[in-house]
Write a structure and sequence with these properties.
It is built from 7 helices and no strands. It is mainly alpha-helical and 186 residues long. The longest helix is centred in the middle third of the chain and has 25 residues. It is globular and about 55 Å long.
Length: 186
């Protein structure tokens, strides 16, 4: 088992040094993230400008995963919405590019805010819905998913947990980037 884990660590590039990034670049990125976090906090539960891109990827996920059946088609929106930035973060981790890694990881977790809002709306179904398919047949993903799992009554609790994890991940990503200030040169 340890050989398998060593192989994964070796393949991931985790033993390699991160590529250098200037102190000014780190500071500029930190300013960007602070402003974005303030913006996101001020729009708590609202639609952020980046969510338009998230929505396109989400709807594309339904179309892509629909080929694997109704259940995966239903879950596919969120799967692809989370998978795209996560895989990009993994790529930049492998390439040891800290700014790009943090950017993708940050927006992976930002997607959780969008998903949390959608989850918390499962019973109320007050959010406007979008579809890439037949406009006569629109279903609320999380109402259907939570109903099938028997947890619909916990939609707001699940949404709050996902939102908290999203915020935690965004803050941790920014915190990790801030630690790069110790290892960078002006």
């Amino acid at each position: 088992m340890s050989e398998f884990l060593d192989t994964i660590v070796e393949w991931s590039g985790a033993r390699e040094d991160w590529r250098p990034i200037s102190r000014w670049a780190v500071l500029a990125w930190l300013v960007f993230y602070v402003f974005f976090l303030i913006y996101a906090f001020s729009m708590y539960g609202g639609y952020l400008f980046i969510d338009s891109a998230n929505l396109v990827v989400h709807e594309g996920g339904h179309l892509l995963f629909f080929w694997f059946g109704r259940t995966l088609g239903l879950w596919g929106g969120t799967i692809l919405q989370w998978l795209v930035p996560l895989l990009l973060a993994a790529y930049f981790f492998h390439e040891r590019q800290p700014a790009a890694f943090v950017f993708c990881l940050f927006f992976f977790f930002e997607n959780w805010l969008y998903t949390a809002t959608y989850m918390a709306d499962a019973r109320a179904m007050a959010l406007p819905l979008v579809t890439a398919g037949d406009s006569d047949y629109i279903e609320h993903d999380w109402n259907t998913i939570f109903s099938s799992l028997g947890v619909l009554q916990y939609d707001t609790t699940i949404g709050a947990i996902v939102r908290t994890l999203g915020w935690s991940g965004m803050l941790a990503s920014v915190g990790w980037l801030a630690t790069r200030l110790r290892t960078t040169k002006p």
